């Protein structure tokens, strides 16, 4: 199976990190047309510009499974279902395992905060809630997360606060072939091949990064727009 992995599309008709994001949806459709995936996986942050009409047009072409991040139109995301995937919801519940052509996919949505209270209509989690979900995760091929882990590749790029350390401890115990994440925008992508394998991409118009995964060859190609910049096996 061929999977297109994106995160942080940030589709709005405004600027994000100083860059206009109104072209994000047409850019995504172009990527889908060129890569011809069997499935799209997203680590969240579609943002408030998504509409049910545009998304359902995409879903008629290719199934999508996604978690939510911290910039979302939750009302739209919760309504979306996959007509090409037995009408399964687009939004993967925390810890739920969805199987597609023998490939097992799960996720943990959102970001962490001290109180766990929603912000801008998007739920958040406390560290305790995150750990409890992590303990219940079953072995999967792909795990989608949004919050960043405290891995060496992020040192000097982001603040490795207690939240990122909690995520790191979670990922150390997870049994997943590959963990797919987002949330960080300082660089186009991050690859960690230590005790667990992790790929993070920024698919916003700032970096236009994404991954193409071949599940038969267990190979990942990382692209920035139309240029392949990295390749690794998982």
Question: Could you please describe the fold and organization of this structure?
Answer:
The chain has 5 helices and 16 strands. The protein has a single domain (2-233), classed as Metallo-dependent phosphatases (Purple Acid Phosphatase, chain A, domain 2, 4-Layer Sandwich). It has helices spanning 24-35, 52-59, 74-79, 127-136, 162-173; strands spanning 2-6, 15-16, 19-20, 39-42, 64-66, 81-82, 88-89, 98-100, 103-108, 140-145, 176-181, 189-193, 197-201, 209-214, 219-224, 227-233. The strands form 4 sheets. It has a 6-stranded mixed beta sheet, with no helix packed on it. A 6-stranded mixed beta sheet has the order 8-9-10-11-13-12, with helices on one face. The protein has 234 residues and is α/β, with parallel strands linked by helices.
Poorly predicted regions are none
Mean pLDDT metric: 97
| CATH class descriptor | Alpha Beta
The sequence of SSEs as H and E is EEEHEHEHEEEEHEHEEEEEE
**N/C terminus separation:** 15 Å
Number of helices: 5
* Helix percent band: 10-25%
Question: Mind telling me the CATH superfamily name?
Answer: Metallo-dependent phosphatases
Strand order of the largest sheet: 5-4-1-14-15-16
Number of domains: 1
Secondary-structure class: alpha/beta
Percent of sequence in beta strands: 25-35%
* Morphology call: globular
């Amino acid at each position: 199976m061929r999977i297109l992995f994106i995160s942080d599309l940030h589709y709005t008709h405004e600027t994000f990190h100083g860059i206009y994001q109104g072209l994000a949806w047409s850019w995504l459709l172009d990527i889908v047309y060129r890569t011809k995936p069997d499935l799209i996986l997203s680590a969240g942050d579609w943002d408030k510009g998504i509409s049910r009409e545009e998304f359902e047009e995409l879903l008629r072409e290719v199934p999508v499974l996604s978690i939510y991040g911290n910039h979302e139109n939750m009302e739209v995301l919760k309504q979306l279902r996959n007509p090409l995937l037995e009408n399964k919801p687009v939004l993967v519940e925390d810890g739920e395992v969805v199987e597609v052509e023998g490939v097992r996919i799960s996720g943990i949505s959102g970001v962490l905060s001290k109180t766990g209270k929603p912000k801008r209509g998007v739920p958040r989690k406390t560290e305790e809630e995150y750990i409890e979900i992590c303990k219940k995760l079953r072995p999967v091929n792909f795990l989608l997360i949004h919050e960043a882990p405290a891995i060496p590749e992020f040192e000097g790029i982001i603040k490795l606060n207690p939240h990122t350390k909690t995520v790191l401890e979670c990922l150390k115990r997870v049994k997943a072939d590959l963990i797919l994440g987002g949330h960080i925008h300082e660089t186009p992508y991050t690859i960690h091949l230590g005790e667990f394998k992790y790929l993070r991409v920024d698919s916003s118009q700032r970096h236009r990064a994404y991954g193409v995964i071949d599940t038969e060859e267990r190979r990942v190609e990382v692209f920035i727009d139309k240029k392949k910049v990295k390749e690794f096996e998982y």
